[in-house]
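Supplementary Note 3. Input sequence used for the single-chain structure prediction.
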Amino acid sequence: MSDLASAAKPRLQSTLAELEARLTNVVHDLDEPADRDLEEQSIEVADDEALEHQAHLISREIASVKGALARIEGGSYGICVRCGGKIAAERLEARPEAALCIHCARSNG
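The predicted structure, written as discrete structure tokens, is reproduced below.
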């Protein structure tokens, strides 16, 4: 395991635990029973839409972190999944879950 991977692994594991806890809280909030008051129900619907969006974003972050941990375990951490080039150490320090080199990330959008 490279030094970058060794340094990133505990950070990614900590991030994963935090994200999973946040997702659990959001799902718990979504599972709360609806209020009987119609005016309150309309507010809850809007809140639930925001929570569902938040859950989607958190789920994407979880997938990204799990992907990075899998690349660490597989020995391909720091290698761009698109072009196979090296991901700069600075990029991995800033975004340890990065799967793309900066060139591929910029041309992605």
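The mean pLDDT is 90. The CA atoms of residues 84 and 101 lie 9 Å apart.
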